[in-house]
Amino acid sequence: MSTGYDANRWKRFDDWDGRALRLDKFAIEDPENGFSAFHGAADPRPGLKIKGGKVTAMDGVAAEDFDLIDAFIATYHIDPDIAEEAMAIPSGELARMLVDMNVPRTELTRLARGLTPAKLAEAVAQLNAMEIAFAYSKMRARQSPGNQAHVTNAKDDPLQLAADAAIAVALGFDEIETTMRVARNSWSNALACCVGSAVGRAGTLFQCSSEEAEELEIGMAGFTSYAETVSVYGTESAFIDGDDTPWSKAWLAAAYASRGIKMRCTSGAAAELLMGFHEAKSLLYLEARCLCLQRGMGSQGTQNGGIDGAPLAASMPGGVREIMAETLIAVWLDLECASGNDARHSESDMRVAAKVLPYLIGGSDLICSGFGSILKYDNSFNPSSFNGEELEEFLVLQRDFEADGGLTAVEDARALDLRRRAIDALSHVLKDLGLAQATEVMKRSVAVASGSNDTDTFATRDVGLISDKIAGDGVTVLDVIRSLHRGGFVHEAENLLFLVKLRVSGDYLQTSAVVRDNKVISAINDPNDYTGPGTGHRLSEARRKELAAIRDVLDRDEVLRAEAASEMGEAKAIRYQTMGAANPGTERKEIVVGVSPGFGSKIFRTLAGHRLSTVLRALQSGIERGGGTMRLVRLWHTADTSFLGLSAARLSGSGIGIGIQSKGTAVIHHKDRLPHNNLELFSNAPITTLEHYENMGFNATVYSRGELPEPVVVPTRGEALGARFHARVALIYAIETAMTEDGATTETLQITFLEDS
Amino acid sequence: MADKSLTASDYPIAENRPDAVIGHRGKPLSSLTMEAVLNGDVTMEDLRITPQALEQQAQISKSAGRSTLAGNFERAAEMTRLSQEEVMAIYELLRPGRAASKDSLLDVAQRVRDEQDAPLLADFVEEAARFYEKRGLFRKRY
Predict the structure, then answer these.
(1) Is the Cβ–Cβ distance between A285 and A118 less than 8 Å?
(2) pLDDT class for A558, splitting at 50, 70, 90?
């Protein structure tokens, strides 16, 4: 056998190599080659020259040398009336204003209209991560936070899309976004999510991410209500490589508004680096350019904070702080911010949770610009930071921090009802409009499936045919509304009509608009007015209760119910008889076992699940194996393990006692030792086996002879036993402590085992 | 309606000023009922945003200090007069390398100015043409 003692590497590194974290690749800072979060080799110093109301130089570039991005920013973003005042303020002073709760948000957004990209970047770069998080929370546009879901699947199955859209709506997402595995399926995806999102509640905005012209057509047919595919880049070369210019994208921005469709742009750290056109500039400076461009275009908002470049940004030192900093620039520029936290930037769950935390506790217009409401493998955008798998973790984080992440738990019976309703509604529409016929098997398989691996549904080719027919027949949302109504899906028809009517007035085109409780709320009528504690977004008591209401929550009655279920079994296994007051013994071979007040009368099983009768059998068997005898007493003055053990030892003729609580925590004690200086302790009741108790009994007899045994060690594998058991422990222990009485007499217990077990 | 500018206090218009919302075919918001949809009295045209609504939203944006967003709504108001095909054709022409020379963009600008009463869009396209020329974008890409 090789012991490996001559290895030339500390084996802890092997352990670390095995962690998911080590799948992440990290990159060295290399500003010349675009690998710098904050300090690009070619980042310009802030500067602005204006003559006759026109920008003549900006951030070190003269107007005649402006590239398309400079030119657009200088023309549309820079407000000459404010620029002189704003640019004169030192960046350090601007940074302090951002974290000063006495400087109102509106004063800062006013100044931002006169700040150049380099100036904005220089100011936020002076803030540490905590300050950025605080400033973001103060500066974000809409007061009520929200969230956005991805609804996609690996088969582009319309039935599953409808069911998953209904679930996303029930969870509370303000927006849902779909995309396709096969581009041709876009119309089918749009129809399916549109119907699904009308189940249960009205007003969830929906987008179908596809090719620009088609996306606009789908919107025109009334199936979708927003878009966020208008990508912009921070260098001219990247922009042109992306086949657009600031003017073409601004044209598209107006096009969406002209069709009554909400629109936000997309940009994010490291996109230029990924595309090979970084110009040796930092992630933050390039993103500041993107954001000034977006404000100039008249986009109401942005999806930024890394986005597809998040993994690359996070490979650099300070990359995640940069991602935070760029979202701060977005809200400082008064843009709605769908703050990334979508493309999963790490294989490490810890890195993922750490990254989302500032946005969860500080709030964001849309915390994730794509929370995967479906399983990872079903996410056609690629896995998100949070996915169907981790959804309950997000719910618990909301509960932990009493922070509104926009989501609410869905009870399981209701979830299945909603899925069935959505599937039935869509199946009806597909049949009624002559698009397809869903079978009972398809419907049933999709309703219960966690993901598309478990469904028996339309083939992807069939979906293509459905999609072609929707587009070919010119089906519109009005056809769908009428069809739903004909099929008896009246609520769903009304919910859809409510949503499409909103586009006539265009209210949801304003900054940060979403629909809550059948009303449009936005930065206009729900502005973030944070000016310190007690202001800004606060949880209502009703919302706090919703966040607390996750499933499987323990209470005292639940513990007692579980114990009552064990009581019958124990009644058949053991009988306890009280034999009056217990006196000190003289028998040198006796080991006194002292049990807690509720042992076998209120509580019947240890935390490991052992019936208390079997634990007593094990202790007795060990004591007898060591040549001793067991005397059992019940203590009424204490429920504490140490004092149970010490009190038992003081009654014991051998001077050795064992104390044991109902939950299984046990100790060997000696009559002359201090209470907390015991001989052996089993503190981890949940992992203590009957064999351990048997050995404890045996060891007690070894101590009684004045010898030193090999102590029994209960091995742990590092389980978070506190997390698993302490809520139950506290409830059980409270039941036992409530039974104690000062100065109460210790009783002798006689036990009879009634069956072999 | 156009005589008095709307402000943030009129928002949301559909709730606070429903009288100010009139569809393309003259239908008020209150007539877009389920019954009317089922009877076939509502068309997609009735569900389209109007230039008036976009101008109203622009006024509200401006009153909240968002002049660039207002600018977008004002361009969008003009764009409601363009057909879907025209919107997409001009978008395509604005993409890099699609226009062979400045002239094709200037022609478009002329047309929307003269035929579609869209001066803001015309200025916007002319401005693009100037910068594209300066940056050498009239080069073939594929």
Answers:
(1) yes
(2) confident
Q: Which of A721, A716, A689, A538 is nearest to A609 (CA)?
A: A689
Tokens of A145: 């936070």
Closest chain B C-alpha to A265 CA, distance in angstroms: 13
Q: Say if residue A117's pLDDT is above 70.
A: yes
Amino acid identity of residue A453, one-letter, is: N
| Interval A608-627 mean pLDDT | 97
User: Rounded distance, CA B73 to CA B31, Å?
Assistant: 25
Which of A71, A254, A485 is facing B131, going by the closest CB pair? A71
The stretch B17-31 carries a mean pLDDT of 91
Residue A148 bears catalytic tag: yes
CB–CB of A592/A649 below 8 Å? yes
Q: Catalytic site residue A303? A: yes
pLDDT at A518 exceeding the cut of 50: yes
Homologous superfamily of domain range B83-142 = Propanediol/glycerol dehydratase, small subunit (1.10.1510.20)
In this prediction, residues A229-241 reach a mean pLDDT of 95
- Give bridge partners of residue A667 from the DSSP assignment: A659, A681
CB-based contact B52:A260 (threshold 8 Å): no
User: For position A332, what pLDDT does the model report?
Assistant: 98
B1 pLDDT above the threshold of 90: no
Reduce the secondary structure of A513-573 to three states and give it as a string. Answer: CEEECCEEECCCCCECCCCCCCCCCCCCHHHHHHHHCCCCCCCHHHHHHHHHHHHHHHHHH
Q: Is the pLDDT of residue B70 over 80?
A: yes
Sorted by where each starts, the structural domains of chain A and their CATH numbers stand as: 34-139+225-301+318-339 (3.20.20.350), 148-223+341-548 (3.20.20.350), 556-753 (3.40.50.10150)
Which residue, A512, A530, A529, is CA-closest to A521? A512
Task: DSSP letter for A586, please.
Answer: -
> Which two tokens mark A258?
């002209």
Q: What is the phi/psi pair of residue A297, to 5°?
A: -65, -20
Taking chain B, what is the end-to-end CA distance rounded to the nearest angstrom? Answer: 49
B131–A520: do the CB atoms touch at under 8 Å? no
Q: Given an 8 Å threshold on Cβ–Cβ distance, is A248 in contact with B23?
A: no
Least Cα separation, residue A66 to chain B (angstroms): 9
Query: Tens digit of pLDDT for each residue in A174-212?
Result: 999 999 999 999 999 999 999 999 999 999 999 999 988
CB nearest to B53's CB, from A68, A72, A506? A506
CATH 1.10.1510.20 domain extents, chain B: 83-142
User: Please, which pLDDT band fits residue A213 given cuts at 50, 70 and 90?
Assistant: confident
Q: Does A258 touch chain B (CB under 8 A)?
A: yes
Q: How far apart are CA B16 and CA B33, in angstroms?
A: 19
At residue A161, the 3 state secondary structure works out as helix
From chain B, pick out residues whose CB is under 8 angstroms from the CB of A244: 95-96
Would the CB atoms of A519 and B15 count as touching at under 8 Å? yes
Give the closest of A71, A260, A524 to B60, CB-based. Answer: A524
Residue B57: which of A110, A334, A509 has the nearest Cβ?
A509
Q: What is the dihedral of CA A582, A584, A587, A588, to 10 degrees?
A: 130
Helix (H, G, I), strand (E, B) or coil at A28: coil
Distance between CA atoms of residues A605 and A563, nearest Å: 7
Check CB contact of A501 with chain B, cutoff 8 Å.
Answer: yes
Is residue A177 among the annotated active site residues?
yes
Contact A255 B80 (CB under 8 A): no
Instruction: Scan residues 365-394 of A and list those with Cβ closer than 8 Å to B.
Output: none
Q: Which of residues 53-112 of A touch B (CB under 8 A)?
A: 67-68, 71-72, 75-77, 79, 106, 109-110
Q: What angle do CA B96, B98, B104 make, to 5 degrees?
A: 115
